[in-house]
Design goal:
Elements (H helix, E strand, L loop, with lengths): L2 E6 L6 E6 L7 H8 L6 E7 H17 L3 E7 L8 H13 L7 E6 L1 H13 L6 E5 L2 H7 L4 E6 L2 E8 L4 E4 L9 H18 L1 H12 L14 H20 L20 H10 L7 H18 L5 H13 L11 H5 L8 E2 L2 E7 L5 E5 L5 H14 L1
Parallel strand pairs: 2-9, 3-4, 3-5, 5-6, 6-9
Antiparallel strand pairs: 1-2, 7-8, 10-11, 11-12
Helix pairs in contact: 1-2, 3-4, 5-6, 5-8, 6-7, 6-10, 7-8, 9-10, 10-11, 10-13
Bound molecules: nicotinamide-adenine-dinucleotide and glycine.
Length: 383
């Protein structure tokens, strides 16, 4: 079952297709040539050693068969390598490989590789074509869609970056069969985020899928089913719908379909990642905690009822076990919020829910400090 989802932006000429096709990696050269409008030049393939070992040969061979000259660069594996330091190394690789504006950057890997390679492609020579081949669940349903690129700095997560749309995205769901259990859990937490803000259709789709998984979840031998492929397609469709209506996350757009709603669960997630040095939690796991926290705040502010809170808690726990965060100090977790990009007019904006599928943007000042602190305390000590 192959799916193609087109994404179009109102005020820009960038439009591209996100293709979902099992086994697509074997024919990726042909796809790249077509996504780049038939231009065959050099491809700067940005990946990491692990993904390269699994899929690099297949991908490179197909690129070469299609006539491309491939140069590969390995970034370190992990969130801490999504940094200005690695970005500089990528730029120097592009220069020494004599990559020109007629060539292209290709990201093969998860969101770390995609965000970093996309940022480099957007800045190098003021922007060269970029292709995404996401290989984690999170990058398939979220980070490869919508053109947010960037790196972390000591002052905050994704603090430096750009909006830069790829020329195309190819998702081969079969690559998920080698993904470790924790990474699947992390991806499903982002899928839950989409479900929670989208409505019961998408929410139940994720929830039902997770309920049908064996106890202990995603052990060895995880098989990519037709249900999972259709879940990925629905997720991509939702994200494409939101970002195409608000490509640059307009500061003044506070509507229920603003791109800001995609930050549901992310205010706390980014703070947790920062407080743990980007090493302890996977981004998606931090989002899992962020969803639990936003659900708790929503309940304490009487925006959702007890059964909706329970539903949100249950679905996150069905996605898998989140690493304990009992060692964290709540005030250290809240400190980085001062630098959060979601600050508008000096006030941090929280995305909460007034029911499944009803995201609301709530200014920080409207949430009593005691509510924030008690929710964080419960999250840290009782999960
Ligand atoms: P990741 O890129 O670190 O990948 C997770 C791990 O899986 C890595 O160890 C990687 O080597 C490994 N891996 C990748 N593909 C594999 C495969 N098929 N088989 C086996 N191992 C594989 O993490 P991620 O969860 O993909 O991405 C997280 C990043 O995405 C964060 O930096 C986050 O901020 C970013 N993000 C960006 C956006 C956006 O809109 N740009 C949205 C959400 C998240
Ligand atoms: N992941 C949030 C966004 O793409 O806007």
């Amino acid at each position: 079952m192959n799916t193609s989802i087109s994404i179009n932006f109102d005020r820009s000429s960038s439009a591209y297709d996100i293709e979902i096709a099992a086994g697509a990696l074997s024919n990726i050269g042909e796809w790249a040539s077509s996504a780049l409008g038939g231009k065959i030049g050099k491809l700067a393939l940005i990946t990491n050693r692990k993904v390269d070992r699994l899929y690099g040969e297949r991908v490179s061979e197909s690129f070469v068969s299609a006539g491309f000259d491939v140069r590969t660069f390995h970034v370190g594996d992990g969130e801490r390598f999504k940094s200005l330091k690695t970005f500089e190394k990528v730029i120097s690789f592009l220069s020494t490989s004599q990559i020109k504006r007629t060539d292209a950057v290709v990201a093969l890997g998860g969101g770390v590789v995609g965000d970093l390679a996309g940022f480099a492609a957007s800045i190098y020579m003021r922007g060269i074509p970029f292709l995404q081949i996401p290989t984690t669940l999170l990058s398939m349903i979220d980070s490869s869609v919508g053109g947010k690129t960037g790196v972390n700095t000591a002052f905050g997560k994704n603090l430096v970056g750009s909006f830069y749309q790829p020329a195309g995205v190819m998702i081969d769901p079969l690559t998920l069969e080698t993904l470790p259990r924790r990474e699947l859990t992390a991806g499903f937490c982002e899928a839950i985020k989409h479900g929670a803000i989208s409505g019961y259709d998408l929410f139940n789709n994720v929830n039902d899928f997770l309920m049908a998984q064996p106890i202990g979840r995603f052990g060895k031998g995880f098989v990519v089913s037709g249900e999972l492929q259709s879940l990925i397609a629905k997720q991509v469709q939702f994200k494409a719908y939101i970002v195409s209506g608000d490509e640059r996350e307009s500061i003044v757009n506070d509507s229920a379909s603003s791109r800001k709603i995609l930050n549901f669960g992310h205010t706390l997630a980014h703070a947790l990642e920062n407080a743990t040095g980007y090493k302890y939690l996977k981004h998606g796991e931090a989002v899992g905690y962020g969803v639990l926290f936003a659900a708790s705040l929503s309940k304490k502010l009487d925006l959702i009822n007890k059964s909706e809170l329970q539903l949100l808690n249950d679905v996150v726990h069905r996605a898998g076990i989140l690493p304990p965060i009992r060692h964290l100090n709540p005030s250290e977790v809240l400190e980085p919020l001062k630098q959060d990009k979601k600050i508008v007019n000096d006030s941090l904006q929280w995305i909460l829910l007034s029911g499944i599928g009803n995201p609301v943007i709530v200014p920080h000042a409207d949430i009593p400090k005691s509510v924030l602190v008690s929710s964080l305390d419960e999250l840290i000590h009782h999960q």
